[in-house]
Amino acid sequence: MTDQDTASAPLRPAGPSLVPLPDVTRYLLPKEQLSYLDRRHPIVLLGPALAAAAVCVVAGLLVTASGAGAMLDLYVWIVVGAIGWLLFRALRWSRTVLVVSNRRVFELQAMLIARAAIRPVFRQSVVFRQDPIGQRLNYGTILTETPNGDRVNTFRWIHNPRAFYQAVTDKAV
Predict the structure, then answer these.
(1) pTM above 0.90, yes or no
(2) What is the DSSP track for 120-167?
(3) What does R_g of the chain's alpha carbons equal in angstroms?
(4) Are 93 and 113 in contact (CB under 8 A)?
(5) What would the pLDDT profile of 18-33 be if each residue is shown by its tens digit?
(6) What angle do CA 108, 50, 155 make, to 5 degrees?
């Protein structure tokens, strides 16, 4: 992608989403304007999905090898736990958004209690990284350094990272 492609990239998700984004307007300061709003790339759910599938398969093999009976009840609880954990991770993913405003960058987790991790950003402290697989699947990593330079904040698995990077560097001090 060239700089021209980056400049024309949308700053918000283009089409309708199966799971709507949470409302972040109440977390903005009085004179703050929203520049970018999106959630992480759905590929973050691949690990939990594979782990839940592996747990179900291994538990099924153990039940098959040991025979039915008391182990069958344990298998049901293990499968319910694995599926429940996967659903929790999917719900957490759907309720976590990355927000760039004209004053700050923050990540909002709006589960039962809204938690915001606010990160001040300077223009020269933003680094964009994307591997070849990330280029094909449209995800990447943004690293931001704090003003005093002692801590690096990492935004991993960013969906459409060039638009996020553009929004952050346009609004950075």
Answers:
(1) no
(2) ---GGGEEEE--HHHHHHTEEEEEEE-TTSS-EEEEEEEESHHHHHHH
(3) 20
(4) no
(5) 677 778 888 888 888 8
(6) 30
DSSP code string of 47-60: HHHHHHHHHHHHHH
Q: Give the total number of structural domains in the chain.
A: 2
Examine the domain organization and report whether 35 and 111 are in the same domain. Answer: yes
Place of tokens 């060239």: 2
CA dist 43 → 57, 133, 138 (Å): 22, 11, 10
With both helix axes pointing from N to C terminus, report the angle between 70-94 and 46-66 in degrees, rounded to the nearest 10.
180
Helices (H) and strands (E) in the chain, counts: 5, 7
Q: Which residue has the tokens 């009840």?
A: 73
Verify that 35 and 53 share a domain, yes or no: no
